Each structure stands twice: as C-alpha cells, then as structure tokens.
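Q: Given only this backbone (269 positions), what sequence would you predict?
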C-alpha cells in the first residue's frame, strides 16, 4: 500500500490517490516437462483530488485471475499458454462510464534464457473487452508483453520492452496502448551504473457518452521520450539514483514537451 501524487500523461491531469495491492502466485510442476500455474491480485486506487479536466475521477478496483500451462523445455526455459480474466469496477455514482468491464485475454509465450546472451519473457495473444455500459460494443485487439535483455558483456546490456494492452482510466475512458522502449545500461564501477533510454507510445481513447446514446469518437495520444540516469549502491541494502527524462506529447488538440528531474533513495529490508 502507498500514496501517489503526481501528473498522469494517461489521464492528462494531476493525480493524487492511495493504492492497495495484494497478490498470490502458485505453480505446480506435474512432471519434469509439464506444469500448471494460477495467479490473482487485487488492486484499488482511492482518489483524493478532483480533476482539472471535464471528466471527474473515480476510484478504481481491478481483480485479474490467470491460469497458465507450462511446457518445461529445459531448466532455464519454459513455453506457456495463458488465459486471464480481469474484472474492473469504478465508483462512478451512476455516471455513464466505460470503467465497469471485464476482459478475456489468451496468449502464448516463452520465459527464461533463450541463449547465453538473451533472456526474458515474451508473449503474444488476443484480448476482448466487454463493457457493463449497454451503449458500448465490445473491443478486441492483438496484445503482447515482451521484456527481453541482451547481455553484451558482464558490464553492458540492452533491454527491449514492448507492450500492447487495454487499461482503464480513472476518468472513465477505455484505453488501448502500444509502447516500446529500449534501454542501454553500463556498469561504470563496482557501485555505479549508468543507463539511457528511448521510448515511443501510442494510446487510443474511447470516450464514455455524456448522455444516453452512442459513444463519442475515439481520440489518440502519441508520446516520444528519452532519458538518462545514474544509480549508486551505497550499501548492500541501500541505493541512490538520479536522472533526467524528456517526453514530447502529441494530441489532436495540443502538443507539448515535459521535463522531469528525479532523485531517489531506495532501501531493502
């Protein structure tokens, strides 16, 4: 659990909310080559601030349930198929919204070490999103989650991340986002690591109706980003990091640049 205060590019607004998150993940290897798994979690975001945009915020709760079957190719690599049912609810007080929904997602993938230099988790699948709002027809699309690490040598590596997924908005939209990010990391000394990244993202919004009737037209947002950071291990359990991020947001009604300087200290106990 925790508290988050900041600016959301997804909601195009200032946000302040308390979040609660709890999860459970189980796996059973039925034989040396086959296994099954299940996972679930509960996430709640309790918003404290009103929106500066027209659409007010609503509290969000998300409950996914995943079932997975594994083929154990080797000690370091699994192939799997996954089905996930996700239920999302919003505290909208009777307003017309697209938050209340359930989604079905089917995917296949592989996780582990693909070679001596390539490792990670990659899957591709298809998702269908059904709304409780009777004005909204279902949405479906190709989805994927890819996180691959390419290790050049003991000091340098590249990370490639690709995501295509549906997600709810606190302002009652339905969003489908595609994002790609490549990150280069280099260990300069035993305690200092430098990294830099480039990113691209495209988000499609479907707006809830303002009154009974058909949905409003969909809009989109494109975001281009870059950044760099340094991380230092102070002790075995405490580390500090700082960096700079720049993003350019391009919408149908406006475009602007966003600069962020950040510094943090992380402790593990």
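A: Predicted residues:
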């Amino acid at each position: 659990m925790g508290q988050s205060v900041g600016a959301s590019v997804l909601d195009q607004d200032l946000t302040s909310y308390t979040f609660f998150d709890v999860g459970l993940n189980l796996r059973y290897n039925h034989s040396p080559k086959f296994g099954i798994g299940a996972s679930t979690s509960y996430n709640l975001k309790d918003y404290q601030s009103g929106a500066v945009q027209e659409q007010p915020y609503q509290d969000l709760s998300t409950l996914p349930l995943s079932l997975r079957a594994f083929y154990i190719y080797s000690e370091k690599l699994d192939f799997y198929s996954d089905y996930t049912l996700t239920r999302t609810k919003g505290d909208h007080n009777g307003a017309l919204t697209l938050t209340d929904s359930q989604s079905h997602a089917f995917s296949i993938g592989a996780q582990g070490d693909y070679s001596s230099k390539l490792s990670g988790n990659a899957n591709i699948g298809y998702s269908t999103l059904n709304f409780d709002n009777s004005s909204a027809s279902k949405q479906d699309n190709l989805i994927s989650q890819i996180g691959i690490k390419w290790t050049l040598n003991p000091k340098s590596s590249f990370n490639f991340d690709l995501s295509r997924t549906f997600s709810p908005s606190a302002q009652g939209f339905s969003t489908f986002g595609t994002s790609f990010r490549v990150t280069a990391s280099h260990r300069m000394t035993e305690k200092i690591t430098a990294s830099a990244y480039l990113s691209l993202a495209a988000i499609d919004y479907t707006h809830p109706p303002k009154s009974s009737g058909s949905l409003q037209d969909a809009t989109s947002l494109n975001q281009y980003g870059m950044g760099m950071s340094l991380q230092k291990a102070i002790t075995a359990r405490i580390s500090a990091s700082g960096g700079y991020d720049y993003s350019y947001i391009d919408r149908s009604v406006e475009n602007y640049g966003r600069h962020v300087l950040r510094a943090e200290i992380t402790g593990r106990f």
